[in-house]
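Structure tokens please, single chain.
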Amino acid sequence: MTAEIIRVELPVAFTPTWNRINGVSVDGASLTIGPEDFFFDYRSPSWMICDWQRVHDELLPAKEGTDTALEQMALDYVRERGRSTTDAAEVLRAAHEVYAYLFRPEHLTDPELDYVTPRTLVQLRELATLMALNKVELNGDITNVSPVWMLGHAAQVVYDLTEAESQALDECYHSTWFNESRRRESVLAHAALGGRLVHGCQGSPNMSGGCVVPFGADIDAFRRNLAAMRTPWIEQTLDNR
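Here you go.
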């Protein structure tokens, strides 16, 4: 069965050089994805999401207490408000809102992030938006994976980054960006995408990207599956050059 073409109109234009990635066509703010060319594996084209505006208004102001952690708040919210969708365009629109919030320009004034530029924010927002279509099941099986999973390597292809620049971007994404206050925002905002952000390269800076996974997913199995396929996925990503 042929996978349906994904078409979405986003609030802002995407970088035109996303056209270098197989299966991706960018025309201003219009984004078209051919799943059979874009994904390395695409076995589960359905996603859990929550309405972003409600997450923004109802969940982001929430405060952690001595009885309830942020993660529990997010999990409860997804349980109560989450719904399954097979509309990938809807997922991309939600992801764009999430990452426009997490990687917003006001952070450029933070002295901790003095190495981050407006271009860095665009790169992080675009990469993370497309990463939202990747998927991990509760048993840790990776069922949807695209070149964007390998964030640093995809950045080399799309943005002409050197290896050192792509490593710096990856380090920002998986570690430096998410200090405790920004981690708090991340935990709550990712409820709009039905889960929590897990980095594939935690504990080892090897540019393995990451994914939004459902709460309760088998992370050990996820890491084993990622380790088994990481190298060929990187090679396939770089083949777009």
